[in-house]
């Protein structure tokens, strides 16, 4: 069941919100936010509109535009990411995907406290439940990133840009976690990243893309330390004698 709401942007609304000059078909939803320190979720009721035309898709998820309607009538443009049906994801998989982004941001804050030439951040990711739809489906939702999108590396050890920061950040997370976690699959707009992947040494948690020791090994084998790694005084990662997964240091 849907209701119609005429939403207009007031003159005092933040510039990041877009005006809606026409009536929107909105729906009720619940937005979940994760507290990393307390390791618990909070929730709030919101109203928004999910657009039908997809923005893009990856191997496991497909993205759509979602407009969150603020209490003042302004609209925050967001991206909603749903698992594809063939992935057969469960509700906990959606929450795990969001947790990855919160944990990555915790590493980013630690990274930014060091003397690095460039700071990094991860866009805040929430879990959205569409309460008026059959089965109350879940998805991850985050503010839209305006600008040119770049993919720097993936969770298989691939590197796609010459930017030294993503590789150094991944190396940093490996050492900062006492060699238990590694953040990779970095992509986004300038210094703002989204949709990362965390590989854990024990292979547990952090979503369906966690490749465990194999994913860690592939990153370590492809990484070449750069000036940022040396500035952070990270232990050098010796290149492997042959390509492919190797021993983890």
From TrEMBL:
<dbReference type="GO" id="GO:1903013">
    <property type="term" value="P:response to differentiation-inducing factor 1"/>
</dbReference>
<dbReference type="GO" id="GO:0005524">
    <property type="term" value="F:ATP binding"/>
</dbReference>
<keyword id="KW-0418">Kinase</keyword>
<keyword id="KW-0723">Serine/threonine-protein kinase</keyword>
<dbReference type="GO" id="GO:0004674">
    <property type="term" value="F:protein serine/threonine kinase activity"/>
</dbReference>
<keyword id="KW-0808">Transferase</keyword>
<keyword id="KW-0067">ATP-binding</keyword>
<dbReference type="InterPro" id="IPR011009">
    <property type="entry name" value="Kinase-like_dom_sf"/>
</dbReference>
<keyword id="KW-0547">Nucleotide-binding</keyword>
<dbReference type="InterPro" id="IPR051852">
    <property type="entry name" value="Alpha-type_PK"/>
</dbReference>
<dbReference type="InterPro" id="IPR004166">
    <property type="entry name" value="a-kinase_dom"/>
</dbReference>
<protein>
    <recommendedName>
        <fullName>Alpha-type protein kinase domain-containing protein</fullName>
    </recommendedName>
</protein>
<feature type="domain" description="Alpha-type protein kinase">
    <location>
        <begin position="33"/>
        <end position="237"/>
    </location>
</feature>
<dbReference type="Pfam" id="PF02816">
    <property type="entry name" value="Alpha_kinase"/>
</dbReference>
<dbReference type="GO" id="GO:0031037">
    <property type="term" value="P:myosin II filament disassembly"/>
</dbReference>
């Amino acid at each position: 069941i849907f209701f119609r709401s005429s939403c207009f942007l007031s003159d005092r609304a933040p510039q990041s919100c877009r005006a809606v000059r026409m009536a929107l078909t909105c729906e009720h939803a619940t937005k979940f936010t994760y507290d990393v320190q307390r390791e618990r979720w909070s929730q709030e009721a919101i109203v928004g509109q999910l657009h039908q035309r997809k923005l893009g898709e990856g191997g496991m998820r497909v993205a759509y535009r979602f407009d969150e309607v603020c209490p003042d009538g302004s609209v925050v443009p967001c991206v909603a990411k749903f698992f594809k049906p063939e992935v057969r994801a469960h509700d906990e998989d959606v929450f795990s995907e969001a947790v990855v982004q919160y944990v990555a941001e915790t590493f980013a804050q630690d990274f930014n406290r060091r003397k690095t030439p460039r700071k990094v951040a991860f866009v805040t990711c929430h879990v959205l439940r569409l309460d008026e739809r059959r089965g109350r489906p879940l998805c991850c939702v985050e503010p839209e990133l305006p600008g040119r999108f770049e993919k720097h590396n993936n969770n298989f050890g691939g590197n796609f840009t010459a930017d030294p920061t993503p590789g150094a950040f991944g190396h940093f997370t490996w050492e900062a976690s006492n060699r238990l976690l590694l953040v990779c699959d970095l992509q986004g707009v300038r210094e703002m990243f989204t949709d990362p992947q965390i590989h854990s040494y024990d292979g547990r948690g952090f979503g369906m893309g966690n490749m465990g020791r194999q994913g860690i090994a592939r990153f370590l084998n492809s990484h070449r330390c750069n000036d940022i790694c040396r500035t952070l005084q990270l232990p050098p990662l010796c290149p492997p004698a042959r390509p492919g997964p190797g021993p983890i240091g």
